[in-house]
């Protein structure tokens, strides 16, 4: 039996877990949600809900992971002392594999747009056109390339793969974001976008649709429910203070989302100033793929040579964000196969990645029918229900005394902490109630 990996430093864990949480959901999803939900009011409710809902569920995953030191199936099996936990673990593995199947496609788009800027600088216009035109060949090629990058990192294991690359990629992501933000703020129209982003219309704050969207965003942006945080928690040393580590991960994740909004919403108003259409027929800001692949590239094109450099930085940023999440997703099924079936790590990584790439290819070849369907199935339905199951295990099934003993390993005075006074009943009653309400509304 191979020994389990463990993060070698606190910073390594925080950057790896934040990298898992910081994905396209923060940099693409969050500004899109802000754009379509009335600006600053959404930002305000998102910040509140991220702490009220996402942090307690994140802690449930980290605690279960570290206490059991096992893959998601065995960890939930140990906590539930029965078949129910193992079944939920398998459900988590299937869900995360399906998420990675569509995520790999989107990650491939980010890579092809990054390469397009490079090719443009080299003056190869025809190739540049092909790289950004939607085609089955391009989608298959770049999805495979993106999966290869993911495989390369995960094969290295916890310290030499995941931690080593997270410690490099996450600071790079921050630097690119700050440079882009600094540049965008020097452009005309940016201040108007900043006002939309930062000045809330409080009448909108309690709009039920806005609340549901903010809750969903908080949940998905921290990659909760599918076992990624549980696995990362299982690689944390028993001497660490988990509530503090969890808070640090939450803060980095929320910080990146807010920073992404600070970059993208003003950039949209810069685009408007340059004659690019940023509003849909109904008067709402354009969001999601239209925002990333139409509005912003039109802005970059209007900026000439500098625009190509900015496009390169922006899509490189998106590629890094996609990659830091994809490595944590692939680790979920890999850790199970390595521990349960004693398969050598590199072999397990290649086999599972090949299976997921096959799913991606099926989605690409039936794009209209499957792409949106798989996204809705996993992120709108499966993920919240898995989050609910985790809350039920942590709040109702797992013995409170065992949880307290686990917390005491990293903090001798844990039972007198604010965290211990609030979290056990909060994850038992409040979180399940909020998730059920959110799920009911989304149906």
From TrEMBL:
Organism listed in the record: Rheinheimera nanhaiensis E407-8
Membrane topology: Multi-pass membrane protein
Principal localisation: membrane
Pfam family, one: SNF
Swiss-Prot/TrEMBL keywords: Membrane, Transmembrane, Transmembrane helix, Transport
Subcellular location, record wording: Membrane
Domain of life: Bacteria
UniProt keyword Cell division present: no
Cellular component, GO, one term: membrane
Keyword Transcription: no
PROSITE patterns: NA_NEUROTRAN_SYMP_3 (PS50267)
The protein's name in its UniProt record: Sodium-dependent symporter family protein
Parts of the chain that traverse the membrane: 12-31, 43-64, 85-106, 139-162, 169-190, 210-233, 245-271, 291-317, 349-375, 381-398, 418-440
InterPro entries with a match to the protein in the record: Na/ntran_symport (IPR000175), SNS_sf (IPR037272), YocR/YhdH-like (IPR047218)
């Amino acid at each position: 039996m191979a020994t389990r990996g463990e993060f070698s430093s606190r910073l390594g864990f925080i950057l790896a877990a934040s990298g898992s949480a910081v994905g396209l959901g923060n940099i693409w999803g969050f500004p899109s949600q802000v754009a379509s939900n009335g600006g600053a009011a959404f930002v305000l409710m998102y910040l509140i809900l991220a702490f009220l809902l996402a942090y307690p569920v994140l802690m449930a995953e980290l605690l279960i992971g570290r206490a059991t030191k096992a893959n998601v199936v065995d960890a939930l099996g140990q906590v539930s002392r029965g078949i129910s936990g193992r079944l939920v673990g398998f459900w988590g593995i299937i869900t995360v594999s399906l998420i990675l199947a569509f995520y790999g496609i989107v990650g491939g788009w980010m890579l092809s747009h990054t390469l397009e800027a490079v090719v443009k600088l080299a003056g190869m216009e025809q190739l540049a056109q092909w790289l950004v035109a939607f085609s089955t060949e391009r989608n298959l090629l770049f999805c495979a390339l993106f999966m290869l990058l993911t495989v390369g990192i995960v094969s290295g294991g916890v310290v030499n793969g995941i931690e080593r690359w997270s410690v490099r990629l996450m600071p790079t992501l921050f630097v690119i974001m700050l440079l882009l933000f600094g540049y965008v703020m020097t452009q005309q129209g940016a201040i108007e976008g900043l006002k939309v982003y930062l000045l809330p219309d409080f009448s909108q704050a309690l709009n039920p649709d806005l609340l549901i969207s903010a809750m969903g965003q908080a949940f998905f942006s921290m990659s909760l429910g599918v076992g990624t945080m549980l696995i990362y928690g299982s690689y944390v040393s028993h001497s660490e203070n988990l509530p503090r580590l969890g808070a640090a991960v939450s803060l980095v994740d929320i910080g990146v989302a807010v920073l992404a909004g600070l970059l993208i919403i003003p950039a949209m108003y810069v685009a408007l100033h340059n004659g690019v259409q940023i509003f849909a027929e109904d008067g709402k800001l354009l969001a999601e793929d239209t925002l990333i692949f139409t509005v912003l590239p039109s802005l970059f094109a209007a900026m000439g040579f500098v625009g190509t450099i900015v496009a390169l930085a922006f899509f490189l940023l998106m590629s890094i964000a996609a990659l830091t999440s994809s490595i944590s997703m692939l680790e979920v099924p890999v850790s199970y196969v390595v521990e349960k079936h004693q398969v050598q790590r590199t072999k397990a990584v290649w086999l599972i990645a090949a299976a997921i790439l096959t799913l991606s290819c099926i989605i690409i070849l039936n794009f209209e029918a499957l792409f949106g369907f798989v996204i809705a199935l996993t992120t709108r339905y499966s993920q919240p229900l898995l989050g609910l199951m985790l809350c039920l295990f942590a709040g109702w099934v797992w013995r409170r005394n065992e949880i307290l003993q686990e917390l005491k390993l990293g903090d001798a005075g844990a039972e007198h902490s604010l965290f211990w006074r609030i979290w056990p009943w909060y994850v038992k009653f409040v979180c399940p109630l909020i998730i059920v309400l959110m799920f009911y509304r989304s149906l």
